[in-house]
Amino acid sequence: MSMTAELQTIIPHFDFSGELALCEPIMTGHLNRTYRLGFVLPDGTRRDYVLQRINTFAFKKPEEVMQNVQLVTEHLCQAYRKQGRDPANRVLRLVPVKGGGVLYQDDNGSWRAYDFITGARTIDRVDSPAQFQEIGRAFGAFQNMLSDFPIERLYDTIPNFHHTVRRMEAFERSVVADVRGRAASVQPEIAAVRARRNGMGRIVEMIDAGTLPLRVTHNDTKINNVMLDERTGEALCVIDLDTVMAGSALYDFGDAIRYGASTAAEDERDLSRVRLDIGLFSAYAEGFISETARSLTLPELENLPLGALVMTFENGMRFLTDYLDGDVYFHIEGADDNLARARCQLKLLSDMEAHSDEMYAITKALIGKYR
């Protein structure tokens, strides 16, 4: 077990049980630094935890992030208990900091810890449509159980996170600033973003018009943010709640599709491999709509495919913006990682546009089935 001097100073501040026996990094996600800790209890059994350093570049006010997480996890626990179900392993459980609270901060960073979800795993690619349907059901249930949560209690942890119009304005500022001198080499990608400018602000427009309501949304519904039972494959727990705040259900649906229904990884360099798997779209839509058909409004349900288009566009634009800015937001391993991600998303968006009518037809049929 190797452990940095920093971790040696952080771990004692949390109310962990037992004697530390394991400390290893968990290499997932673009933002937070994450570790798995294993503690041996007096009876010889082991209890594991997740320790995370919050990325305070992305989350300027980590105390507000943690208040949101506390409120949402408490609400989810109550919802499971009302259903007569044990929330253990189904809802993230925060580990208290010694002296109070759930966030430890010092001059070097902001840290929090959770119980490790046992007997479960995450995946980066789905094995089958049935597996993706289960993940859709999990995010749909998450949305449904929070449908009665008062959104005014939540902080906006990243202001305008999915405000696509303002994202486009930020993109244009980055193109003009060109702080790393990269704009000249990515003119086709810049043109692809600009060509779609007028159509990709529709969710924002419908929210402003009152056509779409604001709801408690996860806002990062990648498939690896659902823990699956290792034995049965059942979805157990939705994780990574940093971006939980007020938003549109279309954002959650769309982000899951653009990540999970693609035939290629998010950073695929060979763009000939990137397209929408319409079978996976149908599977996820069925899982999600089966849980939300009664809690979402008809305009929300009918416009779910728009969420897929907008979120794919938005993420492609955000990756390209970060590339132009010098890779200051998303974690990278190689110098062109964000550019590769941007190109992949823009290629996927093009294929989604070609299948748009089919996505809407599938959605309409599922609304009829479950509503």
Protein structure class? alpha+beta
Distance between the termini: 53 Å
Q: Give the CATH level 1 class of the largest domain.
A: Alpha Beta
Order of helices and strands: HEEEHEEEHHHHEEEEHHHHHH
Q: Could you estimate the helical fraction of the residues in percent?
A: 40-55%
Number of strands: 10
Description:
With 371 residues, the chain is of the alpha+beta class. The protein has 2 domains: 5-118, Phosphorylase Kinase, domain 1 (2-Layer Sandwich); 129-370, Aminoglycoside phosphotransferase (APH), C-terminal lobe (Aminoglycoside 3'-phosphotransferase, Chain: A, domain 2, Alpha-Beta Complex). It contains 12 helices and 10 strands. It has helices at residues 5-10, 62-82, 129-145, 164-177, 187-195, 202-209, 249-260, 278-292, 298-302, 304-325, 337-354, 356-370, and strands spanning 19-25, 33-40, 46-53, 104-106, 109-115, 120-121, 215-217, 226-229, 235-238, 245-247. The strands form 3 sheets. Strands 1-2-3-5-4 form a 5-stranded antiparallel sheet, with no helix packed on it. Strands 6-8-9 form a 3-stranded antiparallel sheet, covered by helices on one side. A hairpin with a 7-residue loop joins strand 1 and strand 2 (33-40). The longest helix is centred in the last third of the chain and has 22 residues, at 304-325. The protein is globular and about 60 Å long. The N and C termini lie far apart (53 Å). The model has no long low-confidence stretch (mean pLDDT 94).
Structural key phrases:
371 residues, alpha+beta, Phosphorylase Kinase, domain 1, Aminoglycoside 3'-phosphotransferase, Chain: A, domain 2, 12 helices, 10 strands, 13% strand
